[in-house]
Model the fold of this input.
Amino acid sequence: MGDNNTLKMKFKLNQMEFELEGNQDIVTKQFENFKAFVTDDLLPRINNTVYNEGAIDKTNTQVQLIESKDTNSFEELPIPSLKEIALKGLPKTETDWLLIYCYFASDFGKDTFTKEKIKALYEQTNRKNDNRVANLSNNIKSLVSRDFIGVHNDDDFLIKEAGIKYAMEIIKGNSNSKSSSTNKSKKLSKETTNNGNRKNTKVTKSTLLDRSLNLYPEGTESLIEFSTKFNCDSTPKFIVIIVYYLKEILKVDNINMSAIYTCLNELNIRIPSALNTVINNTKNRNGWLEYDSLEDIDLSIKGRNAIKFDLPKKDN
Done:
């Protein structure tokens, strides 16, 4: 548009589409008045202040406007509910999830929020566990360091413009996050030689130890307590016990080689210099694991059966 004072908006409410064009200040004010009418007046009357499955979800009617870089117009993006975000698997890492929680807890960037609000959203999405709560402060620090959120006072945080923009990218399915140990995996994964063969990469304690893992969760048995139920005589058996513990008891989303190394170290088990080979053997020879990448290790059905039925148990 030639006139920098002119603004054009297009937005939706369910199946209805609206368009505003004119003086920038007037159009912006009209749009804000419309949003306030929908969220504060219209929806409460429809829902009669009682939630039921047929009621309209207020979060689905929120409208996010993103300024175009090459024009003075705005693009509309409806914000889905947290349930829909979870079902689509849009956040790729725990920090992605935390940023989404910050975005919702701040009323989409309009207000400050607290850790308690974040924890409530973990519960609302059935993602709360001791490990995530224990790592919450570290993950918040990560978002602060990336300038996605800021500290407002001793108790309150606020989401910054960069955080809002990236939260919207996550919601649009454009998360560019990778596992927290992606850079480590480049050093730790198998390297390919010129003739196509693979060689093992040696591992060291300094590069693999994951200090964010809480292996002594409050109210739940520790890794050591769980492992002492079994009579183990090989590293693959300890590995399948570790993966089961992390996945089924701690509810860790992404299990990688660093997590397995950390657990073996905690159990005081001799760690092979070619740990990746032993993990691969646990998958290929024993059939206890399944994965496409050492950054996302899971149990196979055979592995779950091994824990429940096959591995020898210690007598009580």
In short: The chain has three domains: 6-78, 82-171, 182-310. Strands lie at 6-13, 16-23, 63-67, 74-78, 149-151, 157-159, 191-192, 198-199, 289-290, 298-299. The radius of gyration is 25 Å.
